[in-house]
């Protein structure tokens, strides 16, 4: 889950590193953060929560709230 801000960039590089190892990973993408909020009205959709629950581990970048959004 890349999330917002620098999160997607950090996750992209982390995935490259993990894929360069001899370990076999099964990566599943999920929406979180402001991008998810724009698409479905909430920053942590239930679909994302379910994917996390079904996973052995979660790789998470970062999230933020843009300054023009009141919380």
UniProtKB/TrEMBL annotation:
Q: Would I find Acyltransferase among this entry's keywords?
A: no
What is one cellular component GO term in this UniProt entry?
Answer: cytosol
User: What UniProt keywords are attached to this protein's entry?
Assistant: Amino-acid biosynthesis, Branched-chain amino acid biosynthesis, Leucine biosynthesis, Magnesium, Metal-binding, NAD, Oxidoreductase
Q: Does the keyword Cytoplasm apply?
A: no
Its top-level enzyme class, in one word, is: oxidoreductase
What are the Isopropylmalate dehydrogenase-like domain coordinates in residue numbering?
A: 2-67
EC no. given is: 1.1.1.41
Coiled-coil residue windows: none
Q: Which domain of life is it from?
A: Bacteria
Pfam families, per database record: Iso_dh
Membrane-spanning regions, if any? none
> GO:BP terms for this protein?
L-leucine biosynthetic process
An example of a GO molecular function for this protein is:
isocitrate dehydrogenase (NAD+) activity
Identify the PANTHER family for this entry.
Answer: 3-ISOPROPYLMALATE DEHYDROGENASE
Its name, as the record gives it, is Isocitrate dehydrogenase
